[in-house]
Specification:
alpha/beta, four-stranded mixed sheet, two-stranded parallel ribbon, 34% helix, 11% strand, globular
Length: 272
């Protein structure tokens, strides 16, 4: 799991005022352990193709990112993401004293709810999943406390999905230690490009990345629609104020049907 945009909420960029990004996005990739080596080899090949030591999307150009995505297309994996717009925090910002770590942890909760839902739908047991966050300046003890509290007293239906997560199996690593974090970075970056307007990009949004990744997302059982299942906008597309064309696209994204994903089954021995 990885993020794009800053977690800072005390001072947020707006108009002529500088500050942290108005949005933060989180991305996650889940694979079967038995597929790890093949996917790691794909990452090595992509890095060689574009002459980079690591695949950090902030350092890649448009065509390098598209090449990265298309080389991953044959891979069996499921993707998850969260889009958060900081203006929607309202009184919660005061309640957490504008603590960026607590904000990050709350967004991580929403992301893990999506993963937990997938685990439940595929009958994967909590002990079969290892969860790795990219190591950052985040209070992970507070994250664990938050998740334990949610498991004990879930206030919403989505929060109940955290029962499928073994919190003790959450760890942190740097990208240099865990190659798969490069894919989580790609997911978070692709979502961020759908919402981030700045002078550097001439206020032009880029939905192409997420469109090409969408078949790998977790889709709603029955419809396979990505929005509301593998992709969560906190707390709705209207709340994050997506541009009309972006909202239309995201609302129409459809995941590849579960029957075509043979990397996950009730007999899986483990997953990352």
């Amino acid at each position: 799991m990885d993020e794009s945009g800053e977690a800072g909420i005390a001072k947020v960029r707006s108009g002529s005022q500088g500050g942290a990004s108005p949005y933060m996005t989180l991305g996650a990739v889940l694979i079967s352990n038995r597929l790890r080596k093949n996917i790691e080899n794909t990452l090595i090949t992509v890095a060689f193709d574009i002459k980079k030591k690591t695949l950090h999307c902030a350092e890649l150009n448009h065509y390098q990112i598209l090449h990265f995505i298309r080389q991953l297309t044959p891979c069996r994996m499921r993707l998850f993401g969260v889009i958060s717009r900081k203006e929607t925090l309202g009184s919660y910002k005061d309640a957490i004293s504008a603590d960026s770590s607590m904000y990050y942890n709350k967004c991580a909760q929403y992301l893990l709810e999506r993963v937990g839902w997938f685990m439940e739908s595929r009958r994967i047991k909590p002990h079969q999943l290892d969860i790795i966050f990219e190591k950052a300046n985040i209070d992970y003890d507070r994250m664990s406390n938050l998740l334990h509290s949610c498991q004990r007293r879930p206030l919403h239906e989505n929060t109940k999905k955290l029962q499928n997560i073994d919190i003790s199996r959450i760890s942190t690593k740097r990208k240099s230690e865990e190659p798969l974090l490069q894919i989580a970075d790609l997911v978070a970056h692709s979502l961020y490009k759908c919402v981030n307007k700045s002078e550097k990009n001439f206020n032009i949004l880029e939905p192409r990345y997420i469109k090409e990744l969408s078949p790998h997302f977790f889709g709603q059982p029955g419809s396979n629609l990505v929005l509301g299942a593998g992709l969560y906008c906190v707390h709705s597309p209207r709340d994050v104020q997506l541009e009309p064309e972006i909202e239309e696209l995201i609302s129409s994204l459809v995941a590849r049907p579960p029957a075509s994903i043979t990397g996950f089954s009730e007999t899986n021995r483990g997953a990352n």
